[in-house]
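Look at one record.

>
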Amino acid sequence: MNPDLTRLHSYPFEKLAELKSGITPPADRPHISLSIGEPKHPAPEFALAAIRDNLDLLSNYPVTGGTPAMREAAASWASNRYQLSHLNASQVIPVNGTREALFAIAQAVVDRSQQPIVMMPNPFYQIYEGAALLAGAEPYYLNCTAEQGYLPDYQQVPEAVWQRCQLLYLCNPGNPTGAVMPAEQLRELIELADRYDFVIASDECYSEIHFEQPPTGLLTVCEELGRHDYRRCVVFQSLSKRSNLPGLRSGFVAGDQAIITPFLHYRTYHGCAMPLTIQAASSLVWQDETHVAANRALYAQKFAQVLPVLQTVLAVQKPDAAFFLWAKTPIDDQAFARELFAAENVTVLPGSYLARTAQGTNPGVNHVRMALVAEVEECLEAAHRIQRFVQGLAQ
């Protein structure tokens, strides 16, 4: 067996299942899950129709690089969304959701013979860590705390770490904090990538769930710098959150041709070509923004109703973007999650499961992540149960 497999941590939801094991919650309160970021809003009907209308394409092998229609739809969407004047379809690859592509990029770009480091935010999406470990790299965790707006402080990274860095993961907007990285910090990272010769992989799958201004993308900053080849930069996008299609497993990666071309070569061996039926539906979904705007409005409605309830008992703020709340807990985060489930049949995710101890601290401790993915009424009911639970802790 690959010895690096032993370096992988248990996934957060495995830990959560173990934490809840043996607990019988009150039967008179239906279970409400705020732990998993799985959108529950209705999928666009036209997307489902497109799948039904193209089932015959399941008789054909797909090409790993994708159909011209799929690549052009993704390139056109990205160009319009991020004001890109130089992105073309050859710089786009369809992927089976950002999860598999974010994992695969590390296997493709990391040179394990050079004592590589892969940087990532902390707390983080655990795929970044697993990808680094299985690529033979050392993860380097960049703590994201309230004091710094839940954004990494790249100025504190030692020179020796930068010199070994081969890949840096961004999550913008962040999971679990919802923090959005400003253009100025993205410019700083691009300059660092040039200085130390590493790749920036920007996970932007939450970018379309925002409340005011759309988050700035990595490729937008490249354009503003006159960096029209998007050198050292690749971005990852998905229909899971934007379009409520997590089961479609559809996204794309786009950016620097010098990365995209060998990454595509890697993927021909990886066995990850997107089925043609999915590509046909995805091409249409990337061309429609009406359902995306309606989706954003639903999330805005939930935050508007849920936050006033939770803020009476918890330290929690509206995020810059995405659909998570990152709340401080009055007791240990694991105890909070376990006792909340036992008392109110509501599941939240302990923040310590999403972070690692780095520079002497675990920035997830005494936090929980709540995903406001259910319908408005269910999220509001969960908020009232959490309010009652926390009030009970104070008595």
User: Anything to note?
Assistant: The longest helix spans residues 290-310.
